Amino acid sequence: MRKVLTAAVLAGAVLVSACNTVGGVGKDVSSAGDAVAGAADKNK
User: What span is annotated as the signal peptide, if there is one (predicted)?
Assistant: First the structure.
């Protein structure tokens, strides 16, 4: 589970660094949160 969470955080960091607008940051943070939530649900 730790590897999945680490991968999700790194992917989120890449997505956040790639966006140019405040709206883009919101979308990137939301998608990173969805990835973490999906990983958590998968490992229940």
Answer: 1-18
The secondary structure of 1-32 as a DSSP string is: -HHHHHHHHHHHHHHHHH--SHHHHHHHHHHH
C-alpha–C-alpha distance, residues 11 and 14, integer Å: 5
Structural domain boundaries of the chain? 2-42
Query: What's the pLDDT tens digit per position in 1-44?
Result: 788 888 888 887 877 666 556 667 777 788 888 888 888 888 87
- pTM for this structure? 0.44
| Terminal Cα-to-Cα distance of the chain (whole angstroms) | 10
Return the SS3 of 37: helix
